[in-house]
Amino acid sequence: MYKGEKVVLRALEISDLDEIMKYWNNIDLRRELGEVIPHSKDQQKEWIEKCWKEAEEGKTYTFAIVEKESGKFLGICSLNNVRHINRSAKVSIAIYDKNQRGKGFGTDAMKILLKIGFDFLNLHRIALNVFETNKAAIRVYEKVGFKKVGLHRETDFVDGRYVNDVAMDILENEWREKK
Q1: What Gene Ontology terms describe what this protein does at the molecular function level (predicted)?
Q2: CATH topology for 2-178?
């Protein structure tokens, strides 16, 4: 387990499935993740098992985000598309319950993910993409040191209109200077 100030990142477990399903098919969460088609509980179970396999292969490391004090499941985060030769990866994060957002849990989880990526996986660059309309997430990413490096125009069709995708990244030396 990786501990931060507010959250702990731990292995994703099948026992998390009920908590995941409480929020997974909520249209607000699905819209933010870019895929609005609902998933069944069996599909989510298969996804968890796929996460374990990808971790064994060194491709993706997915973690459950839990509140440090209560142990309450908050969401997931991952280092994915890990490219060991290039020392790069992409990061993703989701706090599932919208009532738990804005409390610093995502910021803390992102700081831990960066530590894992740079201190334990020896990465050089970590990148992400975020909808331009997700201003709160962009603020979090900038707060932990990500920089906007590009814009992919009209990448996703959300609520009847196309939205832009902001490309952001952080380099190892930038992270070390910031921390």
Answers
A1: acyltransferase activity, transferring groups other than amino-acyl groups
A2: Aminopeptidase (3.40.630)
